[in-house]
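Supplementary Text 2. Reproducibility record for the structural model of the 286-residue chain.

All settings were left at their defaults, and a single model was retained for analysis rather than an ensemble. We include the record here because the model underlies the residue-level annotations in Supplementary Table 4.
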Amino acid sequence: MNSLARRVLTGTLLVLGATALLLADEHAIPGWVPFFCALAISLLCAFELRRMGRLAPLGVGPSLFLGILLSSALVGYRLFETPEALDAAHPALTFATILLVVALASALPPVFVGPKNGELGNGALWGLGLALWTLPSLFALVPFGVCYGTRGLVVLVALSKVGDIFGYFVGRKIGKRRPFPSLSPGKTVAGCVASLVAGSVAGAVLLPFTFPASATIPGSVWGGAFLGAGLNLAAQAGDLAESWVKRRAAVKDSSTWVGPAGGVLDVVDSLFFTTPVAVFLWPLVV
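Retained model, structure tokens:
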């Protein structure tokens, strides 16, 4: 089996797994399936980051794990109290709260953890940056799921990843100009444009499925195209941000846990930017 076939097979299995989890959310107490998914993914990403190439000696783990602990405690408490506690608040407010909690949590470990190889300052800065980049977005999926339901989560994940698929194949087929040669040499202008077009079309098609069955909302197609375009640009930015981190760490992939797709971080990188964009844009079109 060649590399392309392995990537397609891996992607298909990941999509099926994500679909199964989201379908399980339909029959579970609202919010808990996304909560445990966010917790598991954040822990896997933290394990990858703390041992990733040049990041390993900086000791970013304590900042990441403390941020995960407090974020999960905050969101878990709100869910245990009542899902309506998350539903009543705009997801953007919860995202901002998690952002503040993570910032405070990830700034604490350097005060108590001794320097590693004289790199305390750099390690503290990297730990703070990585925690703020990954954790608030992942845990904000919980209030987003409570507010917009399983369909909302499915559409968010689909719009976060559909551009990758079209951009990859179009870029391989006709892509020549490479706008980010030192950061992401595999990206081409043709691939980026194809990704944006695919995201916009997918948004126009998929967004109406998130409305109630009885709802007739004028302009929903254009609103979906606008949302799809915004999320696609955020997804591409998330991919470039992860490429920047990997270049600084001097690694090709975050790990080998997902076979040819790389690591968990390589798979979910787009969500780190699409989730914040979604929690602010979604109310404008839904």
